[in-house]
Amino acid sequence: MKDELLDIDKKLIWHPYTQMKDFENRDILFVDRADGVFLYDNRGNRYYDTISSWWCVMHGHNNPVIKKAIKEQLDRLDQVHFAATTHQGAIELARWLVDITPEPLSKVFYSDNGSTANEVALKMSFQYRILKGQEQRSKFVSLERGYHGDTIGTISLGGVPTFEGPFKPLTFDSIRIPAPYCYRCPAGCTAPDPSDWTDLNGGAFSRLNCSLECLEPFRKVLSEQGATITAMVLEPLLMGAGGIIIYPPEYLRELASLCREHGIHLIFDEVATGFGRTGTMFALEQAGVIPDFLCLSKGLTGGCLPLAVTLTTDEIYNEFYADYSEGRTFFHGHTFTANPLGCAAALGSARVFQEDDVINGLEPRTLALQKGKEYFRDLKYAGDVRGMGMAAAVEIVADRKTKTPFDPSVRAGWQVYLKGLEKGLVLRPLGDVTYLFLPLCTTTAQIEDILHRTRETLEEVFAAL
Ligand SMILES: Cc1ncc(COP(=O)(O)O)c(C=O)c1O
Predict the structure, then answer these.
(1) Overall pTM > 0.90
(2) Which ligand 1 atom lies nearest to the CA of residue 115?
């Protein structure tokens, strides 16, 4: 019966980020059930969910605490519109979020996915300027290789050419500055031996031996156009979809202080880095920088249901707070804004974080992953090996000396995906960057096993390349 369903899938379904012709002569992976860090297919095969099902399953699948929270909520209130209406889950979740994020982040705007969390921040920053009589501040700055979602607004700020694809003509103009991509340093610095400059614990970088020349283009932008910029948007410390690029907190601190000097809002997109991914609850903690907007989704519900938030300050909020007739209302909302089931799942995840002391318990796991990934370094085509917290990545290159990538027609990442399945791993490389984004609950023994299987996968793929 399940095999027949696969035929129906091919007939009826168009999958995201998928060239459907790749599945002309092979079946798409039919995931039948999941438990903890494992996915099981329709034939009973078991796979490690090495990318946390698109970076969101923080406490593993089938988590009993989250499940219970959703079930109880389902008996009480499933959905209600959120304009001029509220419910207990949304209120309690807002209180927890304001508690665990730094002051002055004190207002919570709900939506339902990472792209919309960012869209909300963009629109709030933009409207704030109009309300303030600062219409000249209408531009946004973002990083090359940054990724903030797939809506037209967020691809206007994204810096991954593949995702922008043919849509460029639909986007609004924004300013891109080079990414702090140490392996391919935009300022031409030679990357030091990473074991020298990363904290193997997967936490903050211990030392920085460059003077952040890569920020020069930003300084130039500021001197020429600083007064026309409303906000800078970026993923703090770990740029996900652009290739798991990890950069030092010093960069973030310096960039933030330049933004402050020039009156520019900071929008932190922690959709991927939030909720423990980088070893702390939020990546911003490792740089000690507080943004004007903090965008969260993915891990917010422990990966069970779609939900997102944009946190901001009283200062921003108060600019919109006025008699209705003044026309200062923020006109943005989605059908499933603050969906009660989503909020219940997020509160379930909050309970797991608190009761299991998840963040404090991460250290042995992040250490196992960050130490273990070092063994990838001697693989034939491993150009760069990087990682922090519960993320690790290998950038595959055709020539390690020149850092030349393989011709895209080789599809090295796709080969890794297919081989990974044979090894019981659901890897989903980003181009030629193979990475692990493990659920926070992955045990050290499981991490060792995943590293071993990933190494075997890479060795076999490299031997055939
Ligand atoms: C940093 C970042 N921002 C935004 C998004 C978009 O989130 P969503 O896919 O929920 O729209 C993603 C998704 O991968 C992301 O990694």
Answers:
(1) yes
(2) 11
